[in-house]
Design a protein that fits this description.
Strand content: 15-25%
Structural class: alpha/beta
CATH topology of the largest domain: Arc Repressor Mutant, subunit A
Helix content: 40-55%
Largest sheet: 6 strands, mixed
């Protein structure tokens, strides 16, 4: 029976490998074959495809998808391994997909590495993989984060080189629909696809795995969060909004949603770590597509979608360059959307503004940036807009500061 399951998975894999593949913009050293390569990211973001197309290349490999509940009933992993070796003719490279579903997977991976298999594993749970691998494979694994398409990857999915006007037009679609690869590549209805995926993550990856007794509470919380992306909240205020009295339960649910790459939060900036942790948080979603698919809304909120998209890009950059992202709020409640810190240095202060040509809006955004710079004394000043591109000099407390205005689509395609 096990061999039959592996054979069916192989047939499904061979069909999928014929689909069009978009090269992911990820830098991976080629001198790491002896390390366990761990591909971490959201469900359906293309992790196994990345492994097959950009890590395995032309090597022969064995494949197992542990999203198949029949395999999880097998108590002895060696029976699964023997079936894979038989079907794939004794490969030395193993691609183990959604491995977090396998009991004691970290011990099994450790053993396979000692047996000198080259391992590529994927998982849709950030905390489980990072914490367990840190314990069992210290220094012997290479994490690779694969998220849904970035805008740069999205525009390469089209058959031709796009003009600047076409990139701007495609950006509006990307802003609303997000970057999940499958509905784009197969022309599937985005909303229907993402509704099903969102529910699958909640009920399969969270409710089932963590044995949540009242799943409707988690669902209500998730819908409130997706409807209120970019909003500032405290645990107490969230408790009142969604009628869950236990702050401990809210923190636990929020952690599960973060682990599953649905939402993330950022803290208010402070030079004091304790104050950062005590500050209110802002909530964002890893992919904009979930907003239209699951949020309670009456029309597309372009300002909210743009801020969320920029937040997600900055959050993904944290894994690449070690930066940290915060928001800033001054004593008079003026706000800067994002403070980007790298090491001990604040590199960027970023405002997101849909229509910077509106005089009142422009004055508010610029004043907040200048106030933040005056307090922090560091950072390039940037306003990310829908259309405007310019540079302006502003005098503030006797200091001349340049503010760059840049369209979001162009900022997303910058190489630095």
């Amino acid at each position: 029976m096990i061999r039959d399951i592996i054979l069916i998975q192989k047939q499904e894999l061979e069909i999928k490998r014929k689909d069009k593949y978009v090269q992911r913009i990820v830098t991976v050293s080629e001198n790491n074959a002896n390390l366990v390569r761990v591909i971490i990211g959201p469900r359906r973001a293309g992790k196994s495809f990345f492994g097959m197309h950009q890590l395995v290349n032309e090597q022969s490999f064995g494949f197992v998808n542990f999203d198949d509940e029949r395999l999880l009933r097998i108590k002895n992993f060696d029976e699964i391994l023997q079936a894979v070796l038989s079907v794939y003719n004794n490969p030395q490279v193993l691609l183990l997909d959604e491995i977090q579903n396998l009991p004691d997977w970290e011990i099994i991976v450790n053993r396979l590495q000692r047996q000198e298999y080259q391992l590529i594993i994927t998982g849709s749970n950030s905390n489980l993989l990072s914490s367990e691998l840190a314990t069992h494979l210290t220094g012997r694994h290479l994490p690779i984060h694969i998220y849904t398409f970035s805008f740069a990857e999205y525009i390469t999915s089209f058959e031709k080189e796009l003009t600047e006007a076409e990139k701007k037009e495609k950006f509006n679609d990307f802003l609303i629909c997000g970057g999940y690869p499958e509905p784009l590549m197969k022309s599937i209805n985005y909303n229907e696809y993402l509704q099903v995926l969102f529910d699958s993550i909640l009920f399969k990856d969270i409710v089932k795995r963590h044995r949540i007794r009242q799943p409707e509470m988690l669902e209500n919380m998730a819908v409130w969060l997706i409807s209120n992306i970019t909003a500032e909240f405290s645990m107490n205020s969230l408790s009142k909004q969604i009628d869950i009295s236990s702050v401990h339960t809210i923190k636990r649910y929020l952690n599960y949603l973060h682990e599953s790459f649905v939402f993330f939060t950022i803290n208010g900036f402070s030079y004091k770590t304790g104050k950062q942790l005590q500050s209110n948080q802002k909530v964002y979603c890893f992919d904009n597509g979930f907003y239209r698919a699951k949020a309670n809304y009456f029309s597309d909120d372009w300002v909210k979608l743009l801020e969320n998209l920029i937040a997600a890009e900055l959050m993904k950059n944290q894994k690449k360059d070690g930066s940290k992202v915060y928001f800033w709020k001054g004593p008079n409640q003026e706000e800067v959307d994002f403070v980007v810190q790298k090491g001990n240095k604040i590199e960027k202060l970023i405002q997101v503004c849909w229509n910077a040509e509106n005089a009142k809006t422009r004055k508010r955004e610029v004043r907040a940036l200048l106030n933040a710079w005056q307090k922090l004394k560091q950072g390039e000043l940037i306003v990310i807009t829908n259309n405007e591109e310019s540079r302006e000099m502003h005098s503030w407390f006797g200091t001349e500061k340049e503010i760059q205005f840049i369209p979001a689509w162009k900022w997303l395609l910058k190489k630095d």
